Each structure stands twice: as structure tokens, then as C-alpha cells.
Automatic annotation (TrEMBL):
InterPro entries: Rossmann-like_a/b/a_fold (IPR014729), Universal_stress_UspA (IPR006015), UspA (IPR006016). Belongs to the universal stress protein A family. Residues 20-160 form the UspA domain. SUPFAM superfamilies: Adenine nucleotide alpha hydrolases-like. This is Universal stress family protein. It comes from Bombilactobacillus mellifer.
Length: 160
């Protein structure tokens, strides 16, 4: 009986177009190779749908040694470096032809910051992530993709 019901549902089903209005792409400042393809994909979709795109990166405070963590200047340097990288991505998106580009800098562990701060504040239709291409120090967005996929309240695309 279940097969007959599934067959009927499939027969009655019609493909509907998906439109994205707000796309969030997460960038790893420590791992360009896991970010470049995700960024390309997100920018291409944003251009196709004339969607707003938010580019986010997370400053990971736990990946510095204990002595550096005692120095506020070290964290300020990390924030400044991440901000500069984020603004470079914004410029690249604008050069690609996107006009609705928003940078979002966050701090903490990547999955937690994206799930608890970035997604609720930006309210995307789609989250685009890269997958970790190489082992780097700390918890990168690529290494946290599984947790984001599992808990995100919206669709997530992982690009390799």
C-alpha cells in the first residue's frame, strides 16, 4: 500500500522553481582552498537570482596559544586581519557584478557563531560552505561543516 501511495504522490508532484533572495557564504581566512569554490558558487547564485549575499568569517580565539591569548593586541591583530580579508572578498564580489553585498565578522567557534549569531541576524535562504581542503590549526568553517549542516534552520550547500 505504501508503494501505491508513494507512486500517486510522485505522479501528482510538479517541480516548482526555487528562488534565493538571501545567500550566506562562510569564508575561512586560514584556508583559501576550501573557501574559493564556495565563494564562486555563492556569488554565481547571487548573480543568477539577483540575491543579497552576506560574506562571513569567524575569528577563532581558541586557536592561539595561551601566551598570545593573554595579549589583547594579538586578538586585535587577528580581528584586523579577518576584517581585511572579509573586505577583500566583498570587493571581489562587487567586481563580479554583485551590488547587494554585506560583510559579517563574528567571533568564537565557527559552527556556534554561524548558527547562533550570523544565521539569525542575516536570515538567509541558503548557507554555502566550503569543505576543509587541508588540515589547519584550530576549528575552521570547513571542519565545522557537518555541525552547521545538521543544525542549520535553512538549506546548506557544501562545495568542494
Amino acid at each position: 500500500m505504501a508503494n501505491n501511495q508513494n507512486d500517486k504522490q510522485l505522479q501528482d508532484y510538479h517541480v516548482s522553481e526555487v528562488q534565493y533572495q538571501r545567500i550566506l557564504v562562510a569564508i575561512d581566512v586560514d584556508d583559501f582552498t576550501s573557501s574559493d569554490q564556495a565563494f564562486n558558487f555563492a556569488c554565481s547564485l547571487a548573480k543568477l537570482y539577483d540575491a543579497q549575499i552576506a560574506i562571513t568569517t569567524v575569528v577563532e580565539s581558541k586557536d592561539i596559544n595561551i601566551f598570545d591569548s593573554l595579549s589583547p593586541a594579538k586578538m586585535d591583530d587577528k580581528r584586523l586581519e579577518a576584517s581585511h580579508c572579509l573586505l577583500t572578498y566583498v570587493k571581489k564580489a562587487q567586481e563580479f557584478g554583485l551590488t547587494k553585498v554585506k560583510p559579517i565578522l563574528s567571533e568564537g567557534t565557527p559552527d556556534k557563531a554561524i548558527l547562533e549569531e550570523v544565521i539569525p541576524s542575516f536570515e538567509p535562504d541558503l548557507v554555502v560552505l566550503g569543505s576543509e581542503a587541508q588540515k589547519v590549526t584550530g576549528k575552521t568553517i570547513g571542519s565545522q561543516a557537518e555541525g552547521i549542516i545538521e543544525k542549520a534552520p535553512v538549506s546548506v550547500a557544501v562545495v568542494r
